[in-house]
Every structure is written in C-alpha cells, then in structure tokens.
Batch of 2 targets.
Target 1
Amino acid sequence: MDTKRLIARGISRNVLLLSLVSFANDASSEIIMPILPLFIVSLGGDELIIGLVSGIMESVSSLLKVVFGFVSDKLGKRKFLVLSGYSTSALFKLLLSLSTAWHHVVAFTALERVGKGIRTAPRDAIISESMPEERGKGFGIHRAFDTSGAVLGAILAFIFISIMGLAYNTVILIAAVLAFVSLVPFIWIRDVKGGENRKLEFIKGLKGTSRSLKIFLAIATIFSLANISFMFFLRRAQVIYSDDSMVLLLYIIFNISYAIFAYPFGILSDKIGRGRVLTTGYILFSLVCAGFVFSIQTQYITPLFALYGVVYAIIDGNQRAFVSDLSTEELRATSLGAFHTLIGLTALPAGVISGLLWTTISYQATFIYASLLSLIAGVMLTAYFARERNI
C-alpha cells in the first residue's frame, strides 16, 4: 500500500506506522499459525490438544488486556506498553522454535500471548485517539495491513513447508526473526496521551462504563463462545484433503479475503452504522459453520474459507470501533481491554468444548455448536440495536 497516498487521504501517521508494525508482526505470526495445528499433531497431540492450545493462547492474553488497558489509561501513556508487548511476543516465538513435544507448544504459545495481552488495548487506544472522527476507517486500515501481513505469512509458510521442505521448527525460527524486525517502526511512532487518569480506580473504572457498552459486551461474549478457533477449520481441511499444502493454500485464501474486505467494511460501518454491519457478520458466521457441517467434498471448502475471511473482515475491526464509540476518552483503553478480556476468556471454554465435541461425538457436532450459538448472538444483537435505535 502507498503510505504517502494514504496520509493524503486523511489516514493518521500513527495509524499507518502501527499498521506497518502489525503487517510485519502478523506476517511472523501467520507463518506459525497455519502450521501450528499440524505441528501439534506431529508432536503427538490431537483435536482436544488443538482446542486446549487455542483456548489457552487467547485466555492468557485476555487476562492481561483489561489490566494493561487500565494501566495505559492511568499512566496516560501508550507507546511503551505497545512496544513491550510486541517485544515479549517476539522473544517467546524464538523459544517456540525449540519445542520438541506438544507440552512445549502449550507453554511457549501461552507465554507468547502475554505480549499480546500487554499491547492490544493501548495500541487500539492509539488508533482510536489518532482518528477520533473516523474510527471505523482507522481500525479498517489497521486490520487491512494486519491481514495483508497474514497473507504474506501464510504464503511464506507454504513456500517454506511445501516447496523448500523446511522443518516446522526452522520455519518458526524464521518467523521469530521477522517478529523482531517488526519493532523498527516504533522509532517514528508518537505517543498519544490519554486523559489525566492517575487517580482512576480499576473497579470504579469498569463500573463507570455505560449500560449500552455493558450490554454489547455481554452479546459479544456470547458470540465469542461460538467463534471457535480457525485451527478447527484448518484441521477439517487437513482431514478432507490429506495434504498440508492445500491447508496452507486455504489459509492464504482466508487471509486474502479478510485483507480485501476489512477496509471497505470499516468505512461502511462509519457510513451506515455498526448495527447492520455487525449483525450481518454474526449471522454470516453461523452460515459458514453450517456449511462446514454439510461439506464433505473439496469443491465446497474453498468458497467457505473465502467467506470465512469476509466474516472476520466484517466483525474484527468493527467490534473494536463500536466499543470505542460507546466508551469515554478517559476509559477508552480500559473499555477496549475489558472487551478483549471478556471475548478472550471465552476462548478456553470454547476451545475445550469444541475439542471435546469433535473427539467424543464428531466434527459435525463442533460446527453445529458454533453455528447455533452464533445465530443466537446475531438475534440478540439485532434486538439490541433495534432497542438502541442505532440501525
């Protein structure tokens, strides 16, 4: 993407620089992520372990997101926390490359997610405060860069595994080096101070959030229980194709779809409201999961992965933008941290439930669970926006 042209279009320099950080860091992460379930299986794990790893990864980071969101608000500073978070993740990616058993993967991926817990809420607050009048646009461009990095990472994973034949550990080591490279743009990022919140108290801060925000967080939490890890989608593709190369190609398709649509859907939500966009995303996810229940032939899997990417383009950035809309300036990072914590804490039970359903009943049970629960969340969100008159 042409950064000069984007600045001319009113995109904040901070947003662009953070987007570049996310581009490189996500390229690093997405070299690892599509091979992670394959790596776990190669080290003796099964679908239950895949669910456990995916759940722990998100839950560990989520326990920290609201805390460091609050710390960021209290200090009135963001940049140092964001840099610390990305640095921590890079270090534990390096250690992950040394794994020789699935137990090591559990430990190092959990510790790598500590970095995500530190950086996410302060980073989102910088984005929100850098483009206060066009938050959907700001988060949309960030997610577009982030996911473009994911496309690059998935392509590199395909090249390293399918063409060059590198070992999983070697590929993860290369990804760790790229994670350290992603820290370079921090040289030019300027801190964005929050409000004067040094007397802010944590519990009172959470209680001070609006009723509308609390209701939305409850609905988003229910959807998060349905939003099972992408590892299950990749594992299903691996079973259907019996070909790791095809799994990586499908993940590339998912990320290309995500990258193409993230920015347009961010702009769309600014223009027509978050309600229509988010509700569509929730219900579309339900349909995608239903598609995986009934799809046993290869020709249906590719369009389902493309549609899965559209779902994430609709939901990911716009949920964050809507939380920012509903929060006050002095509690913005705290509110974003609470959002990330609540939806992340559900990742562990969602992962374990999905893994148990898969191993004890069938893969269909996992996708039926996700489809029905996301449909319920979509109905609740429709009722919420109708009541709030935001659609």
Target 2
Amino acid sequence: MLINCVAYGEGHKLSDIPVSDIDQWLTKPGCFVWVALKDASPDELHQMQEEFQLHELAVDDAKNGHQRPKVEEYGDTLFVVMKVPALPATQVTAPGLADEDPWRLGEVAVFVGNNFVLSSRRQSEPGFLGVRARCEREPEHLKRGAGFVLYALMDEVVDRYFPLIERLEGELEAIEAQIFDRGQARYNIERLYSLKQRAATVRHAVAPLVEVAGKLHGGRVPTACQQSQEYFRDVHDHLIRINAALDGIRETIATAIQVNLSMVTIEESEVTKRLAAWAAIFAVSTALAGIWGMNFEHMPELRWQWGYPIALAIIASCAGVLFWRFRRSGWL
C-alpha cells in the first residue's frame, strides 16, 4: 500500500506526486523523491523497481522479508534493512496499548539513491509519519538530501529500542529484589529465562545495526550519505550504548540464574537436612522400641512394674535431646 509519494527541493516539500510522475521529478536538479510503502505487494515493488531502477536482488529481499539487518550497495543505490519494534518510543508505555506486544519486531527496507528514498515496511505499526514531519520542520537539514532522510529513519528505529532496554532493566531489577525470597527461586528462574530470550531477540536486531551504521560514516562512505556522516556517527554511538546495555543485562541475567540455582540447591539441602534430622530421631526411637519389643523369655524388663512408662520416658528423652541438638545446629 502506498502511504505517500512526495517531491522535495532545497529542503522544502514541493508537491505530493503520483507514482507515474516520479521519473519526471528525478530529472529535476536539486530535487529528490521520498516514497513510503506499507506491506507492499509484489506489483507495487515491481513498479518501484522500474521507476528507480532498483537491483532485482535488493527488490527480492524487500519482497520476501525476514532479512537480517544489513546494508548493501548496488551501484549508486544503497539498500538498508532494519528490524523495527512494534511500538514507537513515545508510546511503548502509553495507556491503551497493553494488548500490543512491544517485543514483536517488524521490518523496514530502505532504498537510497542520490535523488530518491524508498522505504517499505512490513508488520510494523505505527509508521514513520513523525519522521517525515520532523524532516519537513528542519529544511536546513533536509537540504542534505536523501542521506539525511535515511539518517532520520535509522534514528527513529534506534530510538524505539531504548524503551525496550528500560523494560528489560526494570524487570531484571524486580527479579533481583525477590531473588532471596524463600520459595521464589524456581519462579525467578522461569522469569529470568523469559527475560533472557527477549534480550536475545533485541540483541539480534541491534547488533547487526552497529555494523550498518559504522559503514555510513568515516572511511569510504556511500555517495548519498557523505553529507550526513556526523549524523550517522551519532546513530552509531546510540547503537553502541544499546549494545553495551544489552551485554550488561545478559551478564546480570546469567549471574542471577546462577544465584537462583544456588538458592534452589540450598533450599533442597535444607529440606534434606530436616528429613535426615527427623529420620535420626525416629531411628533412635525405633531402635529402643525394637529392643524392648523382642519376646524373649529371660528379659528382666518384662516383669518390672514401671518398665513400660520408663521405656516411653527414655524414648521421649532421647528424641527430645536429639531434637534440641538438631535445632541448635540449624537442621530443624
């Protein structure tokens, strides 16, 4: 579905244009065309391929989706793929969005040439209308052309990861606060493994973007991005921060899992000690009861008038002494 198709010149919006007029605007000096698609059909992508002379391999990647974040060059055209969180940075914690899954990642494929930008997003809600509005409010930056638009799109995608990092850190802190609560170890391990899976999902989307952003500033930079290198460097710095935060989260999760496993072992050891203590108490009582329960004819205790109550008192006394010793040792 076509979201919009707009021509820009000298940092200002010139006109909304039909797709059929794209080739006319591409030939005008100082102009570039910005087209946005959502869940584009094969026919739409084929039409854009003809309008912008896109490489068929890049178009196939955009058509099939499920691509690893990457940047590829096809002549003067740059092809960038990014994973996009389901919710925008400004609405991840907003009321009324509790039914959305912020961990679901969509995908956006961006084609950038010297005089055009084509973005095609899949399974990503909401879109990037805010990015277009931001660029139009900054004509002095939009003068830099298609490269600045790519920066604005990348910056928006990267910013959407920060609330996810905050969620991971907040949940991890909540688990750490309960880590030594009795009886919570197994439940905490389940939560930690779930947290580890979500952190891995975010890391698999962010880590390749570090390499992508690194190719867009310093050294040999694609032509379309040469005037916006400092902006891509800023995006690269943000991605390094996010990646470092994810590494810290993963290390903390690993440590917390080890601590919880140790807590499970300690709790099981305490149960084992209690069972061993009670077994010892009943073993002594059983041994004494077994001795006096033998039916031999010549047993002097059998004819004592107070033999039975004395035997019970001895059994109770032994059990009491053992209970006191085990309680004092922390086994009971």
